[in-house]
Amino acid sequence: EAQVTQNPRYLITVTGKKLTVTCSQNMNHEYMSWYRQDPGLGLRQIYYSMNVEVTDKGDVPEGYKVSRKEKRNFPLILESPSPNQTSLYFCASRGVGGNQPQHFGDGTRLSIL
Amino acid sequence: GQQLNQSPQSMFIQEGEDVSMNCTSSSIFNTWLWYKQDPGEGPVLLIALYKAGELTSNGRLTAQFGITRKDSFLNISASIPSDVGIYFCAGPGSSNTGKLIFGQGTTLQVKP
Question: How close does chain A come to B90, measured CA to CA in Å?
Answer without folding.
Answer: 10
